[in-house]
Amino acid sequence: ILNVEQSPQSLHVQEGDSTNFTCSFPSSNFYALHWYRWETAKSPEALFVMTLNGDEKKKGRISATLNTKEGYSYLYIKGSQPEDSATYLCAFEAGGGADGLTFGKGTHLIIQP
Amino acid sequence: EPEVTQTPSHQVTQMGQEVILRCVPISNHLYFYWYRQILGQKVEFLVSFYNNEISEKSEIFDDQFSVERPDGSNFTLKIRSTKLEDSAMYFCASDGGLNTGELFFGEGSRLTVL
Prior knowledge:
The complex is a heterodimer.
Chain A lengths: L4 E3 L2 E5 L4 E6 L5 E9 L6 E6 L5 E4 L2 E6 L4 E6 L8 E9 L6 E3 L3 E6 L1
Parallel strand pairs in A: 2-11
Antiparallel strand pairs in A: 1-3, 3-8, 4-5, 4-9, 6-7, 7-8, 9-10, 9-11
Chain B lengths: L4 E3 L2 E4 L5 E6 L6 E7 L5 E8 L2 E5 L7 E4 L6 E5 L8 E8 L8 E2 L3 E5 L1
Parallel strand pairs in B: 2-11
Antiparallel strand pairs in B: 1-3, 3-8, 4-5, 4-9, 5-6, 7-8, 9-10, 9-11
């Protein structure tokens, strides 16, 4: 059983503050690490697919880093805005993708005005 | 712990056949989803369902696909006439829409179209 953990489970942040949260995943048989942003009842938005150790990706105010050797990824949001409120899911993809994605349970981010 | 259950876990079908994938979301949840993952590719959103109707669907979810919640318990995905490219793992998910931050996925149904 692949273990993908995200922390914290939920997070309240003041508007304008920066924040980050963590995804940990198996360090063996790694293929890719996915981050998704998911607003309730809307289609989840794929933020990043990261494959190489040391990858850093950025999309607007959101960025992510990847450490495959130790099995963790951080997602950073700079200058949080109310529209950033969502659940952020990471998902681990094992080598070859044969087992599909193993998702974490998500970090539910609430931005307080 | 409540869980989303999906059946079958694996289905093999001939091209052109109809397939129905079933999901039992968590009983007090309000929002339901289908995703799929074609082998080696990203998880793709198919459709979201709320209040007995589709709230959003992707371009993948064409006229060959349909969803329904026939009895207030099951949430089904039907593919009317399967194509080879429909071979994928199909994931159902539900959430309660109560800002709990918890999204519950089923373990997936693997569809193989020959």
